[in-house]
């Protein structure tokens, strides 16, 4: 039921004030069904800030942007209905195609590498050893600060010409210069930045690994199974629900990359559009070029694309995710 | 149970009340908030620039508030690109600052959208003084008899050079030198000093405008582009060859040191930019930097004009008189000139121009440069910038850079540029 919270509040106010008064409109004590309704009401009222926020800050703008995606709107003049024009413009736009290419590349390379790093480190940290909790905290820390602007600025400084990375390369005789100004290399700097922030999936993997029964490994060892065999035949299947969760979350997350690309490229999404991720182009069209209709259309297309990818992942899980019998 | 329920409900009501109050506050916060109490009026002034300019502007504001105790000025600043994003959003939301720093690329865009205040009536009422401007600058932002801004400073395109490198290479730029002379110099510098002659001018819209004007054309007409593919293709083809041969600086390196300048970081012996930017070179770099004249096609015409930063009012301001008073103060008060220096270009009024005598070499050079081009009589009126010029300028820079990085061929780049320019003109 979508009742406006504002309208409900005064109604509820009545009975509270006169709760003990004679002839109060409150329910008679011990009335069988009313408390349930009241509890619902209480629930809705507690939720009201969230509901209001959702309606005004999420649902409303979404519906409006869906409308805008079929219009030409420069923020000042009234939106002008153009039908599917924005979508056809998009497919004809080489920069839009570039943004799709860059984003797909980022998702396809960045996500698996990040998850592999997270799993590898989680497996190391799952073993009991001295200083374990320190290492866990240390590896998790980057993901706390990783999404911040300052980390991206530091990253930019690290990978610039004649900076730390460049100098280290030179020690090994690799003369490619800094990565930031190189259209071929800058995307690797972005991938490295996301991989470096593997803390969150790592913690989830760690929890998953703890759930794998020791007996399975012991039995496998008795049967003579080696390290890799144990990994592929016990660990991976046993943590597959956790793996699925991480794949899903990180994929969706990667599609929405913005801050790191924007800042590492010095707000240009360049050089030569090499870091023109989808959201970066959307932002440029909307807020720099004042093409809000086009930007809205891009946003909706991204939503549909992420939805499709998520659906495919859910469909595929039947083939590789193993839930315990009777499922928990 | 019922007792608990009661307490819960009471708390809940408090919560509901609080959140309702919160919403109310937010709504109130959306108002203009510029009405004052006790007869004082508060106006908001926002501008782009860095910390250094912030200190100077704040000093001027303090001085203004002292002289006009009934007007308070709240200031706000961002970097150039962020400034326009924020202003766009504020203006679209109906809550723009009362006074903004403005530039010619944005003038028609916001005039067409009725965002800017017509200052003519304020001048007629005597709140804004339009006398004493240099070289007709008071008409700089006049469109169809209405006035949408007043220049705070003026500047002109120039060639900033690393004097030491030029001297060692034996290249001596002089008034009326041609593009061929310039290019021969670039090669001499490259061969003799092992450094690129120029940072690569192919993305600088304002320089290309000068080259077009030297040939009787211009970058913009009042409502569109003043040139076509036939002009741009050879220009960019040549540029790519010069990048490859090392006469223009390595674009990969130029990209990495941004926002620092290529010449100050020793990547090139010079670059084309606005003359008042030369102040930053001495701060950023280790050499000594000077201003050289713009090369010409025929040995005479440079195509130069005075570009200008201006102050504009918001059409939605509730205090047009105070806005005009503030703008008038910023453009005429001699003390303001002594505080700002050439930070926003050479002062636009004679009173301010005479009030500030630079003591340091870079600023002295700017003053001398401006005087020299004015005396040489090369200054022409500026060509119009249609709505969308800001987007076109950014596209020209970006596509020019892509080209030099070898991402696209000159043909593709030219095609892409005109396609984006068309979209920008249509959607702004």
Give a structural overview.
Chain B: It comes from Streptomyces nitrosporeus. Chain B: Pfam families: SBP_bac_1. Chain B: This is Extracellular solute-binding protein. Chain B: InterPro entries: Bact_solute-bd_prot1, SBP, TAT_signal. The complex is a heterodimer of chains A (328) and B (428). Chain A has 328 residues and is an all-alpha fold. Helix content of chain A is 70%, strand content 1%. Chain A contains 14 helices and two strands. Chain A has helices spanning 5-17, 34-68, 85-92, 94-126, 132-145, 149-158, 164-171, 186-196, 199-211, 214-222, 227-255, 259-264, 278-288, 292-320, and strands at residues 71-72, 80-81. Chain A has a two-stranded antiparallel ribbon with strand order 1-2. In chain A, helix 2 packs across helix 14 (292-320), helix 4 (94-126) packs parallel to helix 8 and helix 5 packs antiparallel against helix 9. The model of chain A is unreliable at 1-31 (pLDDT under 50). Chain B is of the alpha+beta class and 428 residues long. Chain B folds into two domains: 9-133 and 308-345, 3-Layer(aba) Sandwich (D-Maltodextrin-Binding Protein, domain 2), CATH 3.40.190.10; 157-304 and 384-426, 3-Layer(aba) Sandwich (D-Maltodextrin-Binding Protein, domain 2), CATH 3.40.190. Chain B contains 17 helices and eleven strands. In chain B, the strands form three sheets. Chain B has a six-stranded mixed β-sheet with strand order 2-1-3-10-6-11. In chain B, strands 8-7-9 form a three-stranded antiparallel β-sheet. In chain B, helix 16 runs antiparallel to helix 17. Mean pLDDT of chain B is 88; it is low at 1-10 and 15-36. Chain A binds chain B through residues 5-6, 9, 12-13, 16, 19, 29, 35, 38, 42, 45-46, 48-49, 52, 72, 74-77, 94, 160-161, 177-178, 180-183, 266-268, 270-273, 287-291, and chain B through 1-2, 5-6, 8-10, 12-13, 15-17, 19-20, 22-23, 81, 84-85, 88-89, 91-92, 113-115, 251-259, 391, 394, 398, 401-402, 405, 407, 416, 423-424, 427-428.
